[in-house]
User: Fold this.
Amino acid sequence: MAAVTAFAPATVSNVACGFDVLGFPLDEPGDEVSARVTPRGVTIDDILNDGGRLPREAARNTASIAVQSLLTRIGETRGVALTIRKGLPLSSGLGGSAASAVAAVVAVDALFDAKLSRELLLECAFEGERFGAGSAHADNIAPCLYGGFVLVRRAMPPDIVQLPVPSGLSAVVVHPELEIETARARAILGDTVSLADATRQWANLGALVDALHRSDFDLLSRSLEDVIAEPRRASLVPGLADIKRAAADAGALGCSLSGSGPSLFALCRDLGVATRVADAMTAAVVRHIGGKPQTYVSLISMRGARIVSADPKGPALQV
Assistant:
């Protein structure tokens, strides 16, 4: 192939009680990355929809760093030029750096017909995510690549547990007109938690995994509680408690920050409930934060990153 384009979806990480270990993808939005063969090196042709804010230097971009890791791993001496189309808002808590890294390695793997395993692709994407997010965790890149509800037992080397998804389980994500840098949000957390909080969080995480296995929505609802990260980050999202209350009153199983925020997610029994919850959450976000929030309603997507076009003759993404 001369050029390949891959799509990688937005992801919700942490999922309340699963800090740095739980995540799932949405059907949309997502990022697209087009890759074409060049004589040598990794370069970036263009980045679209980022307002000129993301680095064009290959050594400083999440996607190109991930691609360089892949080329080194497969011993490829030819190069790659990337075009990145951002479909995810920057600093949104929806796994934007992960989506770019994952889409890039999936595209380049297909470009050279490398046929790497998902575990090896994850390792390559992880190098980009490590740079882009400023820390080493895989709760965005794993669901972005694998699809479905995942638990990251260990990031490197990857040990990814794919959890069952109860029929109908749906997500609402509302992205306010705010930005929260992941590094700043992580710095707020500090380095220690109390034993009481840790015990409560472990109990919620174990109960949530059991609830997914048994399609027990009541237990799932009781488990969607974050006593570690959310309380420390609550001040970053005005009206967080009221937005969560609006979601619950509309029928949500639970509501919390998506990743480090400012996006919020809610889990719901089905798409009908999710539609009502989306309206309630959006109205609450407008009331407390203002602006024009972006709202997404989706089943928990079972599809991760995927090839969307392959061109044997030329660029897959025209700019």
